[in-house]
């Protein structure tokens, strides 16, 4: 069954997660003087319920526990502000 507007919300959330992963991976590679790593996305479909799991793996620096609590706030960001 399809729910209205879920596609748009899922697209927005995934785009933000991918942008954050790419940004932090590039920053970390630049700081370490290493090549920019690949951002990996894996989609899996559940055998029993048909649900979908999305796994995203980047090479960023991760988040501290105190940051994770804020991560679900709508306007929260760890990106530096633009001048």
Account of the protein in words:
It is a single chain. The protein has helices at 6-32, 65-70; strands spanning 40-45, 52-57. A two-stranded antiparallel ribbon has the order 1-2. With 83 residues, the protein is of the alpha+beta class. The N and C termini lie far apart (45 Å). A hairpin with a 6-residue loop joins strand 1 and strand 2 (52-57).
Question: How would you summarize what this structure contains?
Answer:
With 83 residues, the protein is of the alpha+beta class. It is built from 2 helices and 2 strands.
Secondary structure elements and pairings:
Blueprint: H1 6-32, E1 40-45, E2 52-57, H2 65-70
Antiparallel strand pairs: 1-2
From the structure above, extract its key features.
two-stranded antiparallel sheet; 2 helices; globular; 83 residues; alpha+beta
**Order of SSEs:** HEEH
Low-confidence spans: pLDDT under 50, at least 5 residues?
none
Main sheet overview: 2 strands, antiparallel
Query: How many E strands?
Result: 2
The number of helical elements comes to 2
| C-alpha Rg (nearest Å) | 16 Å
Spatial strand sequence of the major β-sheet: 1-2
* Basic shape: globular
Structural class: alpha+beta
């Amino acid at each position: 069954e399809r729910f209205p507007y879920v596609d748009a919300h899922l697209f927005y959330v995934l785009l933000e997660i991918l942008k954050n992963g790419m940004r932090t991976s590039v920053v970390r590679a630049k700081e370490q003087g290493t090549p920019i790593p690949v951002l990996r996305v894996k989609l899996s479909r559940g055998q029993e319920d048909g649900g979908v799991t999305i796994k995203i793996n980047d090479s960023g620096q991760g988040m501290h526990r105190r940051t994770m609590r804020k991560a679900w706030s709508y306007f929260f960001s760890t990106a530096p502000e633009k001048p």
